[in-house]
Amino acid sequence: MTQPAAVHVVLPGNRPPWTPTGISVRRGDRVTLLGSGRISWSPGHDGGPKYHLWGRVPGGTIFGCTQDTTTVVVDRSGPLELCVYLGTWADGSGALATGHGPYGAKDRGALAVTVLHWPRGVDPVDGLVELRPEVADPRLVAAERERLLDPVVPPPGWSYLLACGPGDIFRHTVADGVPAVDVRCDDAAGIVEKPVDVPLRPGTEITWSWRVEELPGRAPENSRWSHDLLGIETGFDTGARSLSWFWSTTLVPEDDTFDCPGRTRPAVHVPVRRGPAGLGRWRRETRDVWADHERFLGPAPERITSVRLVAVSHFGHGSARARFRDLALCVGRHRIPLL
Questions:
Q1: Is the domain of 135 the same as that of 172?
Q2: Which string of DSSP letters, residue by residue, matches 222-252?
Q3: Which residue, of 90, 122, 149, is where some domain finishes?
Q4: How many whole angstroms separate alpha carbon 192 and alpha carbon 176?
Q5: 80 with 190, same domain?
Q6: Which of 46, 133, 197, 291 has its CB surrounded by the most CB atoms within 10 Å?
Q7: Going residue by residue through the chain (339 aa), what tens digit of pLDDT does each one get?
Q8: Full DSSP string of 112-177
Q9: In Å, how far from its chain's centre is CA 129?
């Protein structure tokens, strides 16, 4: 079998995007990225390629890794570029809303990346088996092949937000005959969103059932470096702060509500459960969105425009395990199912 073109690139964490790989691609070509290394955020806190490694062909749409490895079909012809993502994307082209300021630290670590450019007609699933061991780390090769053979697909109509990028966190499934979402978040962060257009009135409710097996963190979630959480969020037509409900490790339900410590367009996080009691069992939740907005954010806007599932575990390098089902918005007697 024809071997792919391969290059090895080192991306220092203090180098602003974007770095040429020396590979030119055609639209429709398949490219595999195999990454290793860590990027430092602050002393004692760092992340790996699954969050920080991104690629693009200039003029096309940027793409991130769902694990420390990924394989993509490029959407444009031209030179392939890679970057270490720090800050916040301004758009899908690779411009940063936060500029180059986050890259200012002298030592942020680095990512080492092997780039494989597959010949037309070669399936990467087959090609990875035939890849010579000296070309790439066999462990990363095996991990990417396993990922390709068992893709994690989110529920229909839901997509990952650009801010955290794509992931293998939310898997569409069926539980007891009804649609559900399995959550598996290992040292990762992801938010999937479903657009809606629902009037926000007194009594407008969001309801869901969840069986949480493992919480993502161990510390209170209201500090910047312990902000690991699992929950549900609503966005509004004002485009300002969103409203999030989550299962806390230690915070008191409702009383310990707090503003998100790290996001550019922050959420207000409302703990609705606390600690290990109830883990491993189905729990039903109902929240009055209008009343919670009035209480925790101020005067309610006119409409709910999105619902999101949130899973973050990379601050403490932990894991979250859960399943969601029966998620819906209710306006009076009108029920709008979301899963």
A1: no
A2: TSGGG---EEEEEEETT-S-EEEEEEESSPP
A3: 149
A4: 23
A5: no
A6: 46
A7: 678 999 999 999 999 989 999 999 999 999 999 999 999 988 888 999 999 999 999 999 999 999 999 999 999 999 999 999 998 899 999 999 888 888 987 788 999 999 999 999 999 999 999 998 899 999 999 999 999 999 999 999 999 999 889 999 999 999 888 999 999 999 999 999 999 999 999 999 999 999 999 999 999 999 888 999 999 999 999 877 899 999 999 999 999 999 987 655 688 999 999 999 999 999 999 999 999 999 999 999 999 999 999 999 999 999 999 999 999 999 988 999 999
A8: EEEEEEPPTT--HHHHHHH--TTTS-HHHHHHHHHHHHS---PPTT-EE-TTT---S-EEEEEETT
A9: 29
End-to-end CA distance of the chain: 43
Mark whether 232 and 264 lie in a shared domain.
yes
> Number of helices (H) and strands (E), helices first, in the chain?
4, 22
CATH of residue 54's domain is 2.60.120.430
Q: State the Cα–Cα distance between residues 321 and 338, nearest whole angstrom.
A: 20
Burial class (CB in 10 A: 0-12, 13-18, 19+), 229: buried
- Does one domain contain both 86 and 204? no
Could you count the other beta carbons within 10 Å of the beta carbon of residue 252? 10
Between β-strands 109-117 and 5-12, what pairing exists: parallel, antiparallel or unpaired?
antiparallel
One domain, residues 132 and 206: no
Nearest to 31 by CA among 22, 42, 39: 22
What is this structure's pTM? 0.92
Shared domain check, 133 and 53: yes
Number of domains into which the chain is organized: 2
Q: At residue 205, what is the residue type?
A: E
Helix or strand run (H / E) with residue 49? helix 49-52
Asked whether 204 and 290 are in contact (CB, 8 A), the reply is yes
Query: Hey, what amino acid is at 97?
Result: A
